[in-house]
Amino acid sequence: MTNEALQVDCAEWREVAETDAEAMEVIMEMMIEAEEELCEDEAA
Q1: Domain segments of the chain: what residues?
Q2: How far apart are CA 7 and CA 20, in angstroms?
Q3: Higher pLDDT among residues 43 and 33, named by residue
Q4: Is-above-0.70 flag for pTM?
């Protein structure tokens, strides 16, 4: 995921989330999941 794509995601999440803190929480979870998938792909 490119930095620009992440920024777009952040903007969209901010609109749906009640607070920035909530948005950051969701984004962190998404990033952790993405990293886990990357690790699985590399291990395969």
Answers
A1: 3-43
A2: 13
A3: 33
A4: no
Matching residue, tokens 């962190």: 28
Which of 4, 8, 1 minimizes the C-alpha distance to 33? 1
Q: What is the pLDDT of residues 3-38, one digit of tens each?
A: 676 666 667 766 666 677 777 888 899 999 988 888
Joined together, the tokens standing for residue 18 give 């009640």
Burial profile 10-24: b = 16 or more Cβ within 10 angstroms, e = fewer: beebeeebeeeeebe
CA angle 11, 19, 15 (to 5 degrees): 35
Here the tokens at position 25 are 């929480």
